[in-house]
Amino acid sequence: MQQAMLLCNGVQTHVMTEGRWVEEGLSQTGSKDLVIVIPGNPGIPSFYSGFIKSLKSRLPSETPVWTVGHAGHVQPPKNLCFMSEDDSDKPVYTLQDQLEHKVAFIKQYVPKDAKLHLVGHSIGSWCILQLLKDPEIAKQVVRCYLLFPTIERMAETPNGKFLTNFVLRAATLIVFLAWIFSFFPVVLQSILIRIFGGFFAGVTNKSIKPVRQLLEPPVLDRVFKLAQDEMVKVRERDDELISNYEDKLWVYYGATDGWTPQNYCTELKAKHPDINAQICKRGFRHAFVLTDEVEVGKMVGDIISETMSNNP
């Protein structure tokens, strides 16, 4: 696994890969398939390290997997923060900013002959659907794999209501507490994350580092503001877009997901009978990267491998 901060659209961006590094391009032999993972919110690639490792294990050796972090969701090292063309200290990155950031990444780093497999988690699924509106990107896409996709009516979901009515109202206080937390020794931070994160969210030792990245006050503030923007912007499902590309979509809903209720999947299939959409029968959580990353990675990797076999 390789990772680094890359400048993209004026922002130092955390990128993590399994297989060839971003700036190495694709293998000169074998297929030109490339898997890009767009995370949910928070868009911190380290949360996805186990997932992409598991996913990569099911693919041909020459097929790389890249995870692109969201703009502003990982604080760059201090020696990178003040580069003249760096916009990493911007206080807010809207949903549209994040979309433009992903478009810029693909156009800057993805070879023109690459055959793209786009994997989106949560709001990353919304970003992927929007990417299909770009003709240059759409023609490179072989298939999109949307996991627990928040692509419609987010504010109307149980989790959306809780976020709006409680979490976002307390966001300023939570960021202030994160600022106090930042003065604690790293060892104490890790212990507290393990105790409280494990109890409330299933955080394990492997997730302590990305949780510490999330609790950087500027990052946490941007995460909350992006979530607030999602509640406003992600409303009606884009049925015209889905109709145009439904043969390229594989959609996976949770069985008990407070962000993507089962009726959203049922309604999607009623409107688009031929779409490949299903409800999880294996008990995977929306935040699968905390507890089920290996199993979900193998599942998605197998589906991508099958798709590659059918599209040589």
From TrEMBL:
<dbReference type="InterPro" id="IPR019363">
    <property type="entry name" value="LDAH"/>
</dbReference>
<dbReference type="GO" id="GO:0004771">
    <property type="term" value="F:sterol ester esterase activity"/>
</dbReference>
<dbReference type="GO" id="GO:0005811">
    <property type="term" value="C:lipid droplet"/>
</dbReference>
<comment type="similarity">
    <text>Belongs to the AB hydrolase superfamily. LDAH family.</text>
</comment>
<keyword id="KW-0378">Hydrolase</keyword>
<dbReference type="GO" id="GO:0019915">
    <property type="term" value="P:lipid storage"/>
</dbReference>
<dbReference type="Pfam" id="PF10230">
    <property type="entry name" value="LIDHydrolase"/>
</dbReference>
<protein>
    <recommendedName>
        <fullName>Lipid droplet-associated hydrolase</fullName>
        <ecNumber>3.1.1.13</ecNumber>
    </recommendedName>
</protein>
<keyword id="KW-0256">Endoplasmic reticulum</keyword>
<dbReference type="InterPro" id="IPR029058">
    <property type="entry name" value="AB_hydrolase_fold"/>
</dbReference>
<dbReference type="GO" id="GO:0005783">
    <property type="term" value="C:endoplasmic reticulum"/>
</dbReference>
<keyword id="KW-0551">Lipid droplet</keyword>
<dbReference type="GO" id="GO:0034389">
    <property type="term" value="P:lipid droplet organization"/>
</dbReference>
